[in-house]
Request: fold
Amino acid sequence: MAAALDLAASEWPTEPRSRLVIKLVEEGARSLKRARAIRGQEHQDAVEATAGQFAEFYPSGYLAALRQDWPE
Reply:
């Protein structure tokens, strides 16, 4: 925490330490939101990159045929 406050003080030198805590929390929240958005985009990119690659292994009607054996 002390290191984070020191870093924040170098970023916002005119702010009191009490305000630096708030700024750190706000910046942390923004950082987490960005990271989440990036992970979501990476996931979407992976899904799109692999979409249809295994179609030859699963012919049309594969799921319906598989489900016929399932108890209801």
Q: What stands out?
A: The mean pLDDT is 93. The CA atoms of residues 17 and 51 lie 50 Å apart. Residues 2-68 form one domain. The radius of gyration is 25 Å.
